[in-house]
Amino acid sequence: MEEEHELINSYIKYLKYVKEYEEKRVIDLSDVNFFYPTTLLPLLIYIQDNKCRYIKPNDRNIANYFELIKKGEMISNKPSSDIPLILLKENESYPNPILDNLKKWLSNIYPALEYIIGELVDNIYQHSRCESAYIMAQRYDNRGFIEFALIDDGITIKGSLLEGKKIDANQDDSIAIYKALEGYSSKAERGRGYGLSTLTRLITEVLKGEIFLASGKGLMYLTERRGFISDIDRRLKGTLISIRLVLKLVNTMRFDLVSEVDKYINLKQYSILPLSTKNLSDNYANNLN
Amino acid sequence: MTGREAERIATTDNNNSNVVVIRLKDRVPRLDMRITCNKLFDYIESLPNTNIIVDFTGFDIATRSFIHQYIIRKEKSEKRIEEINLSPTIEGLFKIVKKQIEEPRILQ
User: Fold this and answer.
1) CB contact under 8 A, A111 and B60
2) Over 50: is that where the pLDDT of A279 sits?
3) Of A122, A191, A258, Cβ closest to residue B63
4) A37-50 and A6-24 helices cross at what angle (nearest 10)?
5) What is the mean pLDDT of residues A15-36?
6) A183·B105 Cβ contact <8 A
7) In the predicted model, is pLDDT for residue A96 greater than 50?
8) CA distance readout (Å), A206 to A66, A203, A253
């Protein structure tokens, strides 16, 4: 994918806004000309939870978009390429607008998207103990990809594994993410622990997409060819998962879901080890500290 | 068991009020989450019938989580539960998840 690591950069952008607010008590969005869900979703939650003052984007289109997404309203005067911030409610499977719109765009691979989103939302309800969770998605026809993001304000992956006594309290969030990918689950039932590992492999190796995850201080980024798992100094309350899929590939790809569900990510193919921030590339580390 | 056989059992066996066919499409919108499966089985357990036929007509796909929860709840139930009209994908997922339950991964 042309703009690899953009998911990471998008998250770093969010962290910079948080840092700005901590220092100046205002978030300045005046020069923003673009929002990706990976920035926008945690930012909107942060603004909402902390009742942040913010300076609106100077670009009127971006400002309107920001306010509409914030209110959870569909942008009705355009073909729907935007899925607004949608609160996930426990009493429903998940909101239909997400799937209905995605179906229209990705009719061939729809079963895979239903599977991915269903599993991700189920993980939130099963493990996060959150008070609220949100999902948003955006399709970029000109750039050829779709990005969707889910966030919850729950106990993080480490918190979940701690409840299941699958991790020690003194171990980092990155270790928890690694363990979750290896197949550890907070639940004791047989046959648990496949979810994140299978999904990650499906997204990266089969659909050739990218996945980014932030949980507490832990970060994970994986594509088919590369990835890392690490910890940073700044903590996210809860867990954020962002996924990018190339539209052209997703629309044309054929695969057998049943056989793919029986496989899981092989972390040994990556140079992944839990890393401290000093081992991240300078580009990321300088932006975070 | 085919759908027609299930319907025949449920509708013609007047002496056997223990059999009921549940059309899944009438009960749940998608086979996606464990909560959804639990609601289904809470309904199943609330029925007086001891023989349950779950008709999967209309569903092409289910998540692994739903299937896993279905298998676990079915194992715990004292009712006799059978499935009919499974799509090839859902049938395949049942086999995979059963295998994963019986032969779990060995973790380091």
Assistant:
1) yes
2) no
3) A122
4) 20
5) 92
6) yes
7) yes
8) 33, 6, 9
Cβ-contact A15, A288 below 8 angstroms? yes
User: Between residues B86 and B101, which one has the greater pLDDT?
Assistant: B86
Is the separation of the CB atoms in A18 and A233 below 8 Å? no
Q: Is residue B73 part of a domain?
A: yes
Q: Considering the entire predicted model, what is its pTM?
A: 0.85
Instruction: Say if CB B86 and CB B56 are below 8 A apart.
Output: yes
A264: closest CA among B106, B86, B62? B106
CATH number for the domain that contains residue B26: 3.30.750.24
* B108 found inside a domain: no
The stretch B25-49 carries a mean pLDDT of 91
Number of domains in chain B: 1
- CA atoms lying within 13 Å on the CB side of residue A88: 27
Partner-chain contact B61 A111, CB within 8 Å: yes
Phi, psi of A146 (to 5 degrees): -120, 140
Q: Is the pLDDT of residue A268 over 80?
A: no
- The pLDDT tens digits for A173-232 are 999 998 898 888 887 777 777 788 889 999 999 889 999 999 999 999 998 888 888 888
Could you tell me the pLDDT band of residue A22, with boundaries at 50, 70 and 90? very high
In the numeric block, the tokens 């971006």 are attached to: A62
Specify the CATH number of the domain A83-288: 3.30.565.10
Predicted confidence band of residue A111 (pLDDT cuts 50, 70, 90): low
Q: Nearest CA to A229 among A180, A160, A159?
A: A180
* B87 is a domain residue: yes
Closest Cα in chain A to B105: A183
Distance CA A206, CA A112 (A): 10
Contact B101 A183 (CB under 8 A): no
Nearest CB among B30, B96, B104 relative to A262 is that of B96
Instruction: Please report, for chain A, the start and end positions of each structural domain, with discontinuous segments joined by +.
Output: 83-288
d(CA A107, CA B103): 35
**Assembly ipTM:** 0.81
* Per-residue model confidence (pLDDT) at position A157: 93
Burial of B108 (0-12, 13-18, 19+ CB in 10 A): exposed
